[in-house]
Design a protein that fits this description.
The protein has about 250 residues and is α+β, with helices and mostly antiparallel strands. It is built from eight helices and eleven strands. α1 packs across α2, α3 packs antiparallel against α4 and α3 packs parallel to α5. The longest helix is centred in the middle third of the chain and has 40 residues.
């Protein structure tokens, strides 16, 4: 945190903004992860995405550097941290207290009530996210258990990732990157049908994962139905950052 620039406005007074880089340092995560999350939240109208600004900072060797950052207010910083890592929300609260310590004042009654309601809302959101994280862990365990049995041949009506990419691209025009993101990040991604031993002459005992075709098809139909059309060929989706190409099948 010593490498961060002062976020207090010139001339002192109550700080009004915190940089996306400072949030990344508080969470001990990559700055680009924070910026990507901010874009996704802005696409869902949860926060307002400010313009990028250059920030001067000192790297781990004490050398001056410049980087494009987003500056956000207190409310949005809580939302971003709660989205990225609920257990680190307290660090951001502590940091805001440090920033505001230079200009302490007694909150008004309205502010005290607002802070209390905000704390209740944050607690409810953290509980919901923790429950979602627990469910995600359970799903991951299920997938690992499904993948532990190595089969000698690929089951009928299953497919590996290469065939899966080609088939889904042919159906919806999605890129390999978008297909892989859906398979990795969407909470309803299909569970593997199992792991198959690669019998190719040069495979050297390697294995590959396969999925049931019907599960993959159902997943991408649901994903496509949830997509928001922004141009004739470009769409957005809450689970993905930015726009991507999609050709929706005609009804």
């Amino acid at each position: 945190m010593d490498s961060l620039m002062n976020t207090t406005p010139p001339g002192g007074g109550k700080p009004s903004r915190m940089s996306s880089r400072e949030i990344a340092d508080l969470l001990e995560t990559r700055h680009d992860n924070v910026k990507r999350t901010m874009k996704r939240l802005a696409n869902k109208a949860v926060i307002v995405l400010p313009p990028l600004e250059d920030e001067q900072f000192l790297d781990e060797k004490g050398r001056p550097r410049a980087e494009a950052v987003y500056w956000v207010g207190k409310r949005d910083s809580y939302v971003i941290v709660a989205q990225l890592s609920p257990e680190f929300t307290a660090r951001v609260v502590d940091r805001w207290q440090e920033l505001e310590a230079a200009a302490p004042r007694i909150p008004t009654t309205a502010e005290a009530f607002a802070n209390a309601f905000q704390m209740l809302a944050d607690n409810e959101r953290r509980q919901a996210q923790q429950q979602a994280a627990i469910s995600a862990i359970g799903d991951k365990v299920d997938r690992i258990e499904h993948a532990q049995t190595v089969m000698s041949s690929r089951p009928a009506n299953s497919e590996g990732i290469t065939h899966l990419r080609e088939r889904i691209h042919g159906m919806f025009g999605l890129s390999v990157e978008t297909i892989d993101e859906v398979m990795r990040q969407s909470p309803y991604a299909p569970k593997p049908a199992g792991t198959v031993k690669n019998l190719h002459e040069n495979a050297d005992g390697s294995t590959y994962t396969v999925w049931w075709k019907k599960d993959v098809t159902a997943t991408f139909h649901r994903f496509v139905d949830e997509c928001q059309q922004v141009t004739a060929t470009l769409c957005t989706h809450p689970y993905l950052s930015g726009r991507f190409k999609l050709i929706k099948p005609k009804q």
